[in-house]
Design a protein that fits this description.
The complex is a heterotrimer of chains A (393), B (345) and C (520). By secondary structure, chain B is mainly alpha-helical. Chain B is 70% helix and 2% strand. Chain C is α/β, with parallel strands linked by helices and 520 residues long.
């Protein structure tokens, strides 16, 4: 076994090349460059954005609004984390929206306490899994834990299918996930014939809001405080989404698996040569993305108190990818962080908040969002170029 | 002079869609309801005509535009939104200033083309990857369209409906004629012009194309513009088929069918391979499946799932073909007397 | 008569290392110049200068009696110089005719469509002039490599190139195709074209050329009429490189324990029936010219590419399902020839690069958490042993290092996994002399500690300087074997050029492999 211990001897009489000196930047362009490349770029951007907007739109800075916007962040954060993982690999997962819709339906089918025959008697599940007296485990104490578990497993399975098709048959990730997106999106609609399933158990609905710690500003004059003056701070969605974020950050930065993800995203061939099990890592990342989509689905479904097949439809996908890319995750792979995505999500939620506060039509908002995605992609390209130039200089 | 070894697997691969087409055609025919004479209604000329007409408006025309884009190894996800935006602008003008059909069609074409030019600009000049660019313009386009209409359904004047029902020479539905013209034009451009052949060259090896002195930026820009033009055209024709009613879901997910039609027709996602006739076959196949499922009274909700499955087959075969191609391109360092690039005929 | 092309004092350096040193050459109409030299002697750079692919630092060129300074390959093309690369530049999805006319088609009619009749007719004529009887409409991916080569020449003829540069055109050609190519070349020459012919097959060069130019270390060492050369003289001119390279003394001798045994490895069209043993403590060199199959062989041994048949045994145990992971489990390390594509994670910090292969060793069982401090300590220790010159290895990305230090990172990565067999493909390519010496020291130390080291190199000097034994590969076969006692630069080079009868070498160890199939 080779275990070199002593330092090798340098060549006699040969001078070694000097170390490159780090470049110093005193100029304004250097400052801009540093700002663009900073890890906290999006955080600064979000804060600046907020401060400026808050001056013109006072409604933005009310505690109620802030509390509300924070609650808006969590489901988006959950699903964006999964997407961040996939993007770090250099892949993409377009099926997260459909995964959310399908898991939402599946969870509701397990948990619903009553189902209206006039809505659902055409559903393929009618009479078996769906009955007038509710879903599979209606009324059972285990309905919620099993329902949640089934949702998570279903999401993970869709992810596995994506990963399997991508690694086993060498198919383009975006085509595979486009196909699974169509397939499972249609599947969810078919199961419920486009209907939303309501009547979910209270215990589940609580997951979507349940305040743990709330804040009340103002003097305590009477013994009861009006509900609308209480601002929820710590809620179940907060705990779930932040818990997921912390675990994801942990996987990314502390584990062998996380290192291997970056390695595959940076250089797939070098990783393969270095013994990184590419296929297994890639498959598991897509599984994780499906899992995260299921978590987001739980949060959204609980908040809306329905199982909604079209959950995750529309432009949600763009919000997800946009948040990740603005947060510094590269579309070319090998770069990204959960923290960045967290800031990116905050930025996106704030952006929406501002556009809404400006009372623009939802469609102009969509158009502006689309533009921001382009800007984010452009930013990604610019940052990559800057970094390359820095190294070469 | 070259003896080609017949390779059955390759033969199947290269013609997978044709086989799929024939099998599905027979299966649906056999299982479809019959006329009194016992003839399967699915095979009736009216039904066939109908399938082709719908194939033209739903996936065919934009599929032809998509073929150009895919040939350069790009992608255009924005065609569905482009269809919507183009027809919305034309429709609004028709309603507000009483525009006639032909000028309205021109407006739709112009908007579609400009939309394509926007994609081209972002991709060629700003160097944002096609996937991301067109995903963003997908959202922007639909957002603008809905903003223009305040999310209301647009009802075109009656003449739009009449235009849609036009029969050329008294027998052929107008969309089929338009489709045929588009296909012939596209075939001519791709197969018979310098630009067309350079599209193939760029898709085969963009570096070599640059070395050969081809203006690759211009070629790339043109394919997105063509795709935009096709979207503007398809939007207008489709609106005329829907009785001149355009709501905010108009054209949604059509890009998916367009890609599917092209890839099913043998156009490679990796660029450089494919032709418009394949796309026609792919578009008709997709429509045939849709109609066939309806004939067999399959739940409407299942149809997208079947479609997704067929598209999966298409990309799966595409990937197998590509793997095969790579093997053929492998560099040999020893002469191999038996080596003949054995592409199946 | 003024020469067709004149190259005057042309120089070009890459990153401070001279690739072409003050070369002056000229070539007349109707003449063929044979250009030879070892790998890295500067032939390709010189041709790239003429072809407009790279630009000279100093020096001038004249072409057709006018100053000539191409900026792009298409400038060279327009001027009348066709450069036929080893990797052909044909579009495989287009027809032969279309390939020839792709940048400018003759057009006709209102619609400006391609005049297919015209290109078909012209192509037929062009193909006939290179002796090809092919349908102009046939797609290029359906013709053989040899036919593609001739199509490239037809394309050059169409562009009315006055000078055609052929870089190793015969590597993938059959004997018949080669013969045809030579006939065509003869015809071109009598038709007034000037040709530059680069090849490792010296007999061909001798036979085809009017003049022969020999390059060594970027400089032109001889330029004479072909008649003044014998194959012997060509080889002796190519060797004797004046590199001021230093080699550390070898501190150990090989054992007779077989570490790695390669048996009958064959892949159609690439390598043929390769068998040899690598012993513990041995530094074994694998020499071959560009395109001899040495890199391909190394990749097969490591499991990075598949092979058709044969067995690879490590310590007597066959590797059953070859893959990089299987090889790593069998304690094989593989330093690839291309650091950028397959060696390093350029954007990622040095420490994570170094720990990539042995990451699981630093994992605590729960959740596979990487023990960061242990990992950093090991990486730092390894960086220290290899005298890596870098900033903080936990921060600095690999791409910010010099070539030599990058190579050390790759070696460190493998060392950390404690391998017993090292395969190094071009371990000193593109690195400076000081770093080279250090890499050699590492190789010596590895052998001294009992590893088997297989070095693949196109620099014969370094193999002679470092190895215990040298195997020579040519056209995918093992074509010679030299124990240290018989190291002789010319003889090894002859084997690589196939310019000798097979060496009948005294077999040193009973386990030594046969020296390759006899076939010339």
């Amino acid at each position: 076994m080779a275990t070199l211990r002593e330092p090798i001897t340098p060549a006699p009489g040969l001078t070694r090349p000097e170390l490159r000196k780090p470049r110093t930047n005193a100029s304004i362009s250097g400052w801009i460059r540093r700002f663009l490349l900073s890890n906290n770029f999006v955080l600064y951007l979000t804060l600046i954005f907020f401060v400026v907007a808050a001056i013109f739109l006072p409604s933005l800075r009310t505690p109620g609004n802030i509390s509300n916007q924070l609650q808006n962040m969590y489901p988006l954060l959950a699903v964006a984390i999964g997407q961040t993982f996939v993007l770090i690999l250099g892949g993409i997962d377009l099926s997260v929206g459909a995964t959310m819709g399908l898991t939402s339906v599946i969870g509701a089918v397990v948990m619903a306490q009553t189902l209206d025959p006039t809505f659902f008697d055409k559903s393929p599940l009618w009479g078996t899994l769906m009955r007038p007296e509710g879903g599979l485990l209606a009324g059972s104490d285990l309905a919620v834990p099993i329902g949640v578990l089934v949702m998570l497993v279903a999401g993970t399975c869709i992810g596995w299918l994506n990963g399997f098709a991508i690694t086993r048959f060498n198919l383009a990730p975006f085509m595979v996930t486009l196909v699974t997106s169509t397939f499972f999106g249609a599947f969810a609609l078919w199961l419920t014939q486009s209907r939303n399933i309501s009547g979910l158990p209270e215990a589940f609905v609580n997951l979507g809001k349940g305040d743990l710690i709330s804040i009340y500003f103002g003097a305590k004059l009477t013994s009861d405080i009006a509900r609308r003056e209480i601002y929820s701070l710590i809620t179940y969605p907060f705990i779930i989404a932040v818990g997921l974020a912390i675990s994801a950050q942990f996987i990314l930065s502390r584990t062998v698996f996380g290192r291997r993800m970056f390695s595959i995203g940076t250089n797939r061939r070098a990783s393969e040569i270095s013994g990184v099990p590419n296929r297994s890592v890639i498959t598991r990342v897509y599984m994780f993305s499906g899992f995260c989509a299921a978590v987001a689905s739980i949060l959204y479904s609980a908040r809306l108190a329905i199982g909604q097949p079209s959950l995750g439809g529309g432009n949600l996908l763009l919000d997800i990818i946009g948040a990740a890319v603005i947060g510094g995750t590269s579309l070319f792979g090998g770069k990204g962080s959960v923290r960045g995505t967290f800031f990116g999500v905050a930025f996106f939620v704030l952006l929406l908040n501002i556009l809404n506060a400006m009372q623009l039509s939802p469609f102009v908002i969509d158009a502006v969002k689309g533009l921001f995605i382009l800007v984010a992609a452009l930013l990604d390209i610019t940052r990559t170029r800057l970094l390359n130039r820095e190294v070469r200089a | 002079m070259n003896k080609r070894r017949f390779n059955f697997v390759q033969f199947l691969l290269n013609n997978s869609t044709v086989f799929l087409f024939i099998i599905i055609f027979i299966l649906f025919g056999l299982s479809s309801p019959r006329t009194e004479a016992g003839f399967p209604r699915f095979w009736s000329p009216e039904n066939m005509m109908n399938i082709i007409k719908q194939a033209a408006v739903f996936a065919g025309i934009i599929g032809v535009g998509m073929t150009f884009v895919l040939l350069t190894a790009g992608i255009d996800l924005s065609v569905g939104s482009n269809m919507y935006l183009s027809v919305v602008v034309a429709g609004l003008l028709m309603r507000s200033s009483g525009l006639e059909i032909v000028p309205a069609l021109l407006v739709s074409l112009l908007v579609g083309t400009l939309f394509g030019a926007l994609n081209a600009f972002a991709i060629v000049r700003l160097k944002i990857i096609p996937f991301m660019t067109t995903l963003a313009t997908l959202v922007i386009g639909r957002g603008l369209g809905t903003a223009f209409t305040s999310s209301q359904q647009i009802d075109f004047p009656e003449r739009m409906n009449a235009f849609g029902q036009t029969m050329v020479l008294g027998v052929i539905p107008m969309p089929i004629v338009v489709f045929v013209l588009v296909v012939i034009a596209a075939w001519f451009i791709l197969a018979r012009t310098q630009f067309g052949r350079q599209v193939y060259a760029v898709g085969n090896d963009i570096e070599a194309a640059k070395k050969a002195g081809i203006n690759t930026d211009r070629t790339l820009a043109m394919v997105y513009i063509i795709s935009g033009f096709c979207a503007g055209l398809a939007g207008f024709i489709l609106a005329s088929q829907l009785g001149g009613r355009v709501d905010r879901s108009f054209g949604e997910t059509r890009e998916f069918d367009a890609i599917a039609a092209a890839v099913l027709g043998g156009t490679s996602l990796f660029g450089g391979a494919g032709n418009v006739f394949g796309t026609v076959l792919g578009a008709v196949l997709i429509q045939m499946v849709g109609t066939g499922l309806q004939f067999n009274l399959v739940n409407l909700y299942l149809q997208p799932m079947v479609r997704a499955f067929i598209i999966f087959l298409a990309i799966f075969f595409d990937s197998l073909r590509e793997a095969n191609l790579k093997k053929m391109k492998r560099r040999f360092i020893r002469p191999l007397e038996v080596h003949r690039a054995d592409a199946g005929d | 008569m003024t020469p067709l092309i004149e190259v005057h004092e042309l120089s070009k350096a890459f990153f401070g290392i001279a690739a072409v040193k003050s070369v002056s050459l000229s070539l007349n109409v109707g003449e063929t110049l044979g250009l030879i030299g070892q790998n890295g002697a500067g032939k390709s750079t010189l041709m790239n200068l003429i072809g407009g692919v790279v630009h000279p630092d100093t020096g001038t060129m004249r072409f057709k009696d006018a100053p000539y300074a191409p900026h792009t390959p298409s400038d060279a093309q327009t001027a009348g110089i066709a450069f036929i690369h080893q990797e052909l530049n044909l579009f495989t999805n287009l027809s032969i005719a279309e390939n020839i006319f792709i940048s400018q088609f003759p057009r006709k009619g209102l619609l400006r469509s391609i005049d297919r009749g015209a290109i078909r007719q012209q192509t037929r004529d062009l193909l006939a002039s290179v002796g090809l009887d092919l349908d102009p409409d046939i797609q290029v991916d359906r013709i053989s490599p040899g036919e593609r080569q001739l199509v490239e020449i037809a394309k050059a003829l169409y562009q009315d190139a006055a000078l055609i540069i052929l870089d190793e055109p015969t590597t993938s050609l059959t004997a018949r195709e080669t013969e045809r190519l030579f006939t065509i070349m003869g015809q071109l020459r009598s038709g007034g074209k000037a040709l530059i012919y680069i090849s490792h097959i010296l007999h061909d060069v001798h036979h085809l050329s009017d003049h022969i130019a020999v390059m060594r270390d970027g400089a032109l060492v001889a330029h004479d009429p072909a008649a003044n050369f014998s194959v012997n003289r060509m080889i002796s001119l190519m060797v004797g490189r004046s590199i001021e390279q230093l080699y550390p003394p070898r501190t150990s001798t090989p054992t007779t324990d077989v570490a790695l045994s390669v048996k009958n490895v064959t892949t159609a069209g690439i390598v043929e029936n390769i068998s040899f043993d690598l012993h513990r403590g041995e530094v074994l060199g694998l020499f071959g010219l560009m395109g001899s199959g040495r890199t391909e062989l190394a990749r097969m041994i490591f499991g990075a590419d598949a092979y058709d048949s044969g067995t690879i045994l490590v310590e007597g145990e066959p590797i059953k399902k070859p893959s990089p992971r299987a090889s790593i489990r069998s304690k094989i390390a593989f330093v690839t020839e291309n650091r950028r594509e397959e060696g390093l994670l350029m954007g990622i910090d040095i420490a994570n690069n170094i720990s990539l292969v042995s990451l699981p060793d630093f994992a605590r069982t729960l959740f596979d958490v990487v023990n960061q401090s242990e990992m950093l300590d090991s990486a730092r220790a390894m960086a220290n042993v290899l005298q890596l010159k870098s900033g903080d290895i936990a921060e600095q990305p690999a791409k910010a290092l010099s070539g030599g230090n990058q190579q050390k990172v790759v070696i460190a990565k493998w060392l950390l996994s404690r391998p017993s067999i090292f395969i190094m493909d071009e371990p000193t390519r593109g690195i400076d002399v000081g770093a080279k010496y250090e890499i050699y020291s590492i190789i010596d130390r590895l052998a001294a500690e009992g590893s088997g080291v297989l070095i693949i190199s196109s620099e014969l000097e370094e193999l002679i300087g470092m190895c215990d034994r040298i195997l020579v590969m040519s056209r995918g076969e093992l074509y010679g074997e030299f124990p240290r006692a018989e190291f002789h630069e010319e003889r090894v080079l002859r084997a690589a050029f196939r310019e000798q009868d097979l060496p009948v070498l005294p077999v040193q160890e009973p386990s030594s492999a046969p020296a390759g199939k006899e076939e010339v």
